[in-house]
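Help!! Second protein's tokens look totally different from the first
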Amino acid sequence: MKRRVTHVLDRVWEFYFREYKKLFLIPLMLLVFFSASLAYSKITTGEFFQKGVSLKGGYSVTIETSYQFDADLLAKQLTQAGFFDVDVRTLNDAFTSGISGYDITSESELTAETIKTFFQNTYDLALDDAHLSFGFQSATIATTFFRQASVALIIAFVLMGAVVFYYFRQPVSSFSIIFSTLSDIIAVLATLNLLGIKLSVASLGALLIIIGYSADSDVLLATNILKRKDAPLKDRIKRAIKTEIVMDVAALSVYAIMFVFSNVQMIREIALVLLLGIVYDVINTWLGNVVFQRVVEEGRQ
């Protein structure tokens, strides 16, 4: 059995190393698809991606209750009741897996009186003030924060590109690393949009982490291909992949645990973005970036 598995893995590796240019079509098609998705969102909604209350302003209320609602139906009923741009999320207890409450956000004002009246009339459910927690984010402050966060992302890309170019002194290699990282960000943003998940402050923080993680894996690959000459190219790439597998499995395990067992919505959002980022980084680095680095190395020989 072990010999058979080894044989299959060897054949996969030989195909990967031999047909790397054809495999480049996979990240390329994904980039085109996700870019088109964001463009379509911009044309139809005026925004490349959906923003949560923390990034566009609005009201929120957290309701602590074990009463079971259909989140989609509840959002629809709140909209019909006159609340604008409503989003409802179910909160689950990390230990019992039962429902612990609901988080409701809206651009319309949410007050204790309106919320209690709505649930009393719609579900004949009397809510206590002690089980309601309200929040508000000014649209001006949210817009300012989003603008500053966007600038921070751009600066992160510029600094990453400068460091990479200084280290490798190779325009194509530097461009490919930046391109791979940018592809990761585009893929994550488009996926969140397709899933109907709104971007939040926590998501932006996770995107910054993805930039660092992606740059790390891309530099690992480029260093083994361009800098190290202690083994044939084939062995150097295999060594880099083995190192990357250990890193990715460890990271995926941690973030999966965060996403599954955490009852804090912000932690779950961060974990989801990081999980998506790592998956897309594997594709863009080892099927995309590897092509640029190999072309540069083989051009030297």
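Here's the second one for comparison:
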Amino acid sequence: MSEFATTPSGDRIAYDRRGSGPGLVFVAGAGPFRAIDPWTTQTAELMADSGVTTIVYDRLGRGESPAEGRLDLDRELETLATLIDVAGGSAVLCGHSSGCSISLAAAARGLDVAGLVLWEPPFGAIDGGAREWAGEVERRIDAGDLEGALAHYMKDMPPEWLEGLRQSPEYPQFVSQVVSYVGDGESLAWVESAPLDALLRDVRVPLEVLLGQETFPELFDAAERIVAAVPGSRWLQIPGADHTWEPAAMAAELTRFVTAAATERVR
């Protein structure tokens, strides 16, 4: 059964908490929420059995976390600060896709982040067009063209993803929830706004970038640039395909990472 937490601004966040031990919060990218994401739930369950406190939540405007108004990056980070408290006051963040840029922004702004695991961050080069792309998505949202906003958000993704979504019974729900993608767009524009070593100069926590063994070639460049910007970080590949991880392999790697980060933190 869902638990709920309320942010200082009054946003009510639905989440599942499992396990006991050092904490990890999963940060979804654009689209997923608990009811349609069995991979994250399964990963969290496996980790909880291995001595990790896991938090899986519905981001603002999705699932059981309805929200009104502009769902921007500031509200996303306030949500994360609240859930880090739920996890014990400090937690590793595991970002998926644009959840990676939200997680990095949380660490850069000084939230009590114990470590960062970034699954397939889709970061472009400096001034790579994310600011204009995110602005057009938000312009369409403001105009009430939610279907157009979703199409524009997904314009650089494999076209079969959008076509498959259009054939899905969940398509109307995805259209209505595109208002929750504003924070994703803002965070992706932020990581393109300056060199990563400048943006991440204060991020000095354990960090690793994970790519699936079947992935997109452009993601290797992003992984290498992140690792170059944060001393002591690394990237590696584990089982996964189509931008999704394999739960057992991911749970094992995350458990190892969280345990090591907790040990390093108490030294």
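Reply: Different proteins will give different token patterns, so don't panic. The radius of gyration is 17 Å.
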